[in-house]
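Lab notebook, bench 4. We co-purified these components, and the gel suggests they stay together. Before we commit to crystallization screens, I want a quick structural picture of the whole thing.
Request: model the full complex, all chains together.
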Amino acid sequence: QKEVEQNSGPLSVPEGAIASLNCTYSDRGSQSFFWYRQYSGKSPELIMSIYSNGDKEDGRFTAQLNKASQYVSLLIRDSQPSDSATYLCAVNTGNQFYFGTGTSLTVIP
Amino acid sequence: NAGVTQTPKFQVLKTGQSMTLQCAQDMNHNSMYWYRQDPGMGLRLIYYSASEGTTDKGEVPNGYNVSRLNKREFSLRLESAAPSQTSVYFCASCRIGLDTDTQYFGPGTRLTVL
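Here is the predicted assembly.
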């Protein structure tokens, strides 16, 4: 069983719609959770970090964490073509970070 | 403030050749990491260094060695390159702490082993 699983996609949404990305993790002792965006040929860049159960909002992005269900999600509101990228979910279980395989998102103008 | 830098950006090796990938950070972070990224596999941890003077194996350490030269620098060495090591290699750093363990990534090294 992989440490971090993501809906593999690809995911396509029309411009202005809400994109929903999901992630589950296996280690109940995980402390911190991250969403990274990666454009083709580039390095990952942080979108959101979340440490406590509930929602965390930053502009058009909302991260949701449910530790009981071992579930993390990312909502992107008012999706823009510039949001087209691969989104990586990451979990810190102590000293090590585990990444999902990523979900490819395409926003259609 | 350059963040995390990596050299080289691209490299082509023949099977059996050796090389060292260099990584440096100027954010005074304690922890540094080496990942490889292959299509469909996500980022996989090769080695990490939680603090200066310590290194530990990650998920895929075979065929690699690392050196934490000082707080700023963390190098990855391939002693005898194999085609299976063709990949994109990312270095990352972070400062582990309460609610402050975000990783910052370098631009990557694209390695091809023929």
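The CA atoms of residues 19 and 99 of chain B lie 36 Å apart. Worth comparing against the SEC data before the next meeting. The radius of gyration of chain B is 13 Å.
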